[in-house]
Amino acid sequence: MSTLRENCNMKKLTISCKNISPKQWSVLVIELNMIKKQWKPYANLEIHVPGFNKIIAWGRKKHDKRDSFDNPPVQRRGKTTSSSI
Hints:
Blueprint: H1 4-7, H2 22-38, H3 52-60, E1 73-76, E2 79-82
Antiparallel strand pairs: 1-2
């Protein structure tokens, strides 16, 4: 008796990118990972990308304006606030 997995045909999708910045690449990988999570009830998707775990960890990090080097805290009237540009 064959199992359900043996009856399913393996499908493969290849995405190639040229002229994409590292940040755009990271965002693309993060978005594909979100799609993978949403499709989990319907299909077992696999993503093979060099540095996948590092990219996903960066995407899960909470980026706060207060942590930005481009927007350092400014001292005003005895209170520390973030400068706005």
